[in-house]
Design a protein that fits this description.
There is one protein chain. Helices cover 38% and strands 15% of the residues. It has helices at residues 14-30, 43-53, 62-73, 89-102, 118-121, 133-142, 180-186, 214-223, 251-263, 266-270, 301-325; strands at 2-7, 34-41, 110-111, 130-131, 155-162, 168-172, 196-198, 201-205, 233-238, 280-284, 329-330. It starts with a strand and ends in a 7-residue tail after the last strand.
């Protein structure tokens, strides 16, 4: 049986995917399930590239993905809130968020304080909030390039959105070598980072549209002859949450909630039986205590460890449910922390 893995964006929430993949990868290998394709957007695309690059490892790249978070991305927080930092997990979340925005992270971005003025905000496309040069160097070190051939290696799909016409573009490794420039385009969050230029077109983060990468991925799989006789298992790892316990209050919380509502479920909705393909296993996230603050921009080691552990638990529940029920789709209500 083949597996097609779909990974969602979400900045720091990608640590949830890392934990989920650590649990799932060895079990797929034990069952003899072959990785036919892995695709994603934003941080999901970066992790998909690592998985594809290390697909021949016994753990299907799980150690490489874990190392990305623990050894490269995790950034200790600065004590912006002083003594309160040691007394309150909520304060620690604010420290993580403020560290990311005002100081940066080890492997993804640096602050751009000279862009924090009204004149720069009028030209935000050229003067984004964050400098992503650390991300570019990280990608050049860890995923300098990946090219596949049908039957020999999994296809890698990376989604980005054309800034001018709004179309979702899927770059794939059967057609071209996928390099850091494709991953940077897929992770170019508007306002935070400048857009990426590829072949004379400007691209933004692949999650700024409601369009799903699954339809173009299906087309690519069919065109490359990767659609086998047996329907594949679709695995969708999703960090965006469907339901919250209380309404968002701050501008940041409301913006992130809008992202949740536009992104939740869009991967699995277009895959599996609905696309005339195989079953879907969904690993979905539920809110953690400090989500309204931490969410996408808290890269502290504590937050990453929390998300990683939650991803492992969620994947275990998804895997056990799929194995036990063997239904076309497993809908899960996962526990909290």
């Amino acid at each position: 049986m083949d597996a097609i893995v779909l990974l969602q964006g979400g900045g720091a929430l990608g640590a949830f995917t890392a934990g989920a993949w650590k649990f799932l990868a060895p079990r797929l290998a034990e069952r003899g399930i072959r990785l036919a394709a892995v695709a994603g957007t934003s941080i999901g695309a970066i992790q998909a590239a690592l998985i594809a690059r290390h697909h021949a490892a016994p753990d299907l790249g799980a150690a490489a993905v874990e190392s990305l978070w623990r050894d490269h991305i995790a950034t200790p927080s600065l004590p912006f809130l002083g003594p309160w930092s040691a007394l309150s997990s909520h304060a620690r979340s604010w420290n993580g968020l403020l560290t990311s925005l005002m100081a940066g992270t080890r492997a993804l971005h640096r602050a751009n304080p000279w862009h924090w003025h009204p004149a720069a905000l009028m030209q935000l496309l050229q003067t984004p909030w964050l400098d992503r040069s650390p991300m570019e160097q990280t990608l050049r070190d860890l995923v300098p390039g990946y090219r596949s051939e049908p039957g020999q290696a999994p296809l890698l799909g990376v989604a980005a959105v054309d800034v001018l016409d709004g179309s979702l573009k899927l770059f794939d490794s059967d057609s071209e070598t996928i390099g850091p420039e494709h991953l940077l385009a897929s992770a170019a969050v508007p306002g935070l980072y400048e857009p990426c230029e590829l072949r004379g077109r400007l691209y933004w983060d692949g999650d700024v549209t409601r369009d799903s990468l699954v339809p173009p991925l299906l087309e690519r799989l069919a065109a490359s002859g990767r659609r086998g006789k047996e329907p594949p298992l679709w695995i969708a790892i999703e960090q965006r949450i469907a339901q919250v316990s209380e309404p968002p209050q701050s501008t940041l919380a409301m913006t992130l909630r809008m992202l949740d509502l536009t992104q939740h479920g869009k991967l699995a909705r277009h895959a599996g039986p609905r696309a005339g393909a195989g079953p879907v296993m969904r690993v979905v996230r539920t809110p953690l205590e400090n989500d309204p603050v931490s969410r996408e921009l808290d890269y502290s080691p504590e937050r990453i460890a929390e998300l990683f552990a939650q991803g492992e638990r969620g994947a275990q529940r998804a895997w056990e449910g799929w194995c036990e029920r063997n239904t076309p789709e497993v809908a899960l209500n996962l526990p909290g922390p």
